[in-house]
Amino acid sequence: MSAKSSGAANTTNPTVTAWVDEVAHLTRPERIHWCDGSEAEKEALTKLAVELGVLTPLNQTKRPGCYYHRSNANDVARVEQCTFICTSNPEDAGPTNNWMAPRDMYAKLRALCEGAMRGRTMYVVPYLMGPPGSPLTKVGVEITDSIYVVLSMRIMTRMGSAAYAQLGNSPNFNRGLHCMLDVHPDRRFIAHFPEDNAVISVGSNYGGNVLLGKKCLALRIGSWLGRKEGWMAEHMLILGVESPTGEKTFVAAAFPSACGKTNFAMLVPPPAFKGWKVWTIGDDIAWMKPGPDGKLYAINPEAGYFGVAPGTSMKSNPNAMKSIARDTIFTNVALTPDGDVWWEGHDAPPPKECLDWRGQKWTPDSKEKAAHPNSRFCAPAANNPMLAPEASDPNGVPISAIIFGARRSTTMPLVYQAFNWIHGVYVGATMGSEMTAAAAGVLGQVRLDPMAMLPFCGYNMGEYFLHWLRMRKLITHPPRIFHVNWFRKGEDGKFLWPGFGENMRVLKWIVDRCRGGANAEETPLGWVPGPNAFDLTGMEDFNVDDLARAQSFNVEEWRNEVVKSNELFLKLYSHLPKELIFQRELLVSRF
Ligand code: GTP
Ligand code: SPV
Ligand code: MN
User: Fold this and answer.
1) Which of 138, 176, 361, 363 could pair with 142 as two cysteines, CB 3.0-4.6 Å apart?
2) Dihedral (Cα; 106, 112, 117, 119), 10-degree rounding
3) Which helix (H) or strand (E) holds 126?
């Protein structure tokens, strides 16, 4: 190997060093930098990223430690059509994933990566997903030629020497290789090899495609490992609700991309909820495993937030605004003349003039948006004033409720509770949501997105439902399961429910249900809040009639819903657990 080495965390783990040699032999970098995660390293790499023009410093008085990044205009979101699950047997990937035989994909990607790092630096990024010492925590090593990825991984994961300390001499880590190539969509692949615990991502530099600990390891490979090892990897936020008397209830919630997880995880209760607090554990991913007491325990494997910028304001999400006040990397937002950031839905009025996410002059008269709808902030979780102390507990937190939520302008009521776990699995499995800018696709179209995991399940979706049903046998105190929809609209096209902080009212009902309080009424869908179960004190322009509208149930709309879910059931038929078909029949007969 002829490349020069730098960095302090050169490991002696033989599997890591052999693999790094192999990748260097293939990609031919000029230098290899072994990341140690130190502050000094961060400073040096940040300085270099600025020199290279990858990062632009923001106004350091207004936003200390904050930097701006603009991506290639054709590289702004996850690309599901370029995302592959490569298993020996195509049935293991299932009909909802793109599949290619591992041998063919390895050959294709090796050809693309050959000599791809010539004249460049190859970074070796060791990281932990999960708190150090947790039985759920996993080690990953990402090799990348993107300094933006290194600096983002340092925020999003526990990056550096701690990972080698946990790994020791074990060969048991996720191998992630990322080569930017020319960042061209024609040469873009995000390929997962679950049988080898490996990921190769080429041709992109966008978060979800290249921060390999996140969607690739924590969800696609994680779900595969979870099935094998008896735990669950889910696209869920985790929060803790603290009552005025100090009782804490932990909740996990799965909403599809750009459907409100970060906002819900950082919820600030309205003034009427005096003494109530909501603590954040995680905003995107939950790893959950039954504990010795038969409850389901969850950890957040991440250490930062890669959140949607547009719509984030002191009004909608003050804790996110505080989280991004320092040490944050912003991507594809608008850049103001005073070196600050702006986006649609920001508290500040539109700047008279700024540079849009493409770097072009923008004024309030411009037709295009100043910030890309999927522009993101990447901020350390430690900045969040409501970060739960339990977030770094290696044992995780006991989950009392699982909430499924979707973006639906019709049909779905504000909230209902499933009758039991199996019914809850049916509710999650038949979830449909309107598509958002977080992935390339047709915006607004309703697509079935079971458990918000359609783009993230690393194996056959039918088997995934079976895994959910089997987990019930390992959990003696199962969480209660709920469905929510903050996005229902009236005939005037306006949201029927104000959302954001007001979601506390729904959350409180859910917590009360888990604790055996709060009255409920049985409906064909499940349990719904009974009269006066919902506290509307302090709500402006919202009364019981509005609530009834947000909760209303329409049989015709629901018949269509069942027809739509049949599409997915047919697709998955050979692996679909019969329990779900029985649940569908029960639902139809209740109508
Ligand atoms: P990913 O990071 O892609 O997984 O997204 P997420 O699920 O964390 O979504 P996020 O909280 O970032 O919200 C996405 C968009 O939904 C933002 O534009 C929010 O302003 C909007 N949103 C979030 N919560 C609510 C709500 O309660 N009501 C309404 N109307 N909009 C909301
Ligand atoms: C999502 O799309 O669900 C995200 C953002 O959380 S990404 O990291 O791009 O996956
Ligand atoms: Mn997400």
Assistant:
1) 176
2) 150
3) strand 121-129
pLDDT tens for 194-216 read 999 999 999 999 999 999 999 99
Question: Which protein residues are within 6 Å of ligand 1, measured from CB?
Answer: 255, 257-263, 283-284, 307-308, 310-311, 316, 438, 486-487, 495, 499-500, 503
* Closest by Cα among 213, 179, 205 to 75: 205
Bridge partners, residue 447, by sequence: 433
For 279, phi and psi rounded to 5 degrees? -105, 140
Under DSSP, the state recorded for 205 is -
- Whether the pTM exceeds 0.90: the reply is yes
According to the 3-state scheme, what is the secondary structure of 259-310? CCHHHHHCCCCCCCCCCCEEEEEECCCEEEEECCCCEEEEECCCCEEEEECC
Q: Strand 248-254 vs strand 236-242: parallel, antiparallel, or unpaired? A: antiparallel
Cβ–Cβ under 8 Å, residues 283 and 266: yes
- At which residue do the structure tokens 């029985």 appear? 582
At residue 406 the predicted structure's pLDDT band, cuts being 50, 70 and 90, is very high
> Ligand nearest 258 Cα, by number?
1
Q: Which residues of 304-327 are buried (b: 16+ CB within 10 A; e: fewer)?
A: bbbbbbbbbbeebbbbbbbbbeeb
pLDDT tens-place string over residues 457-483: 999 999 999 999 999 999 999 999 999
Domains of the chain: 4-52+79-229 (3.40.449.10), 234-303+387-590 (3.90.228.20), 305-383 (2.170.8.10)
Structure tokens at 219: 């969800």
179 is catalytic: no
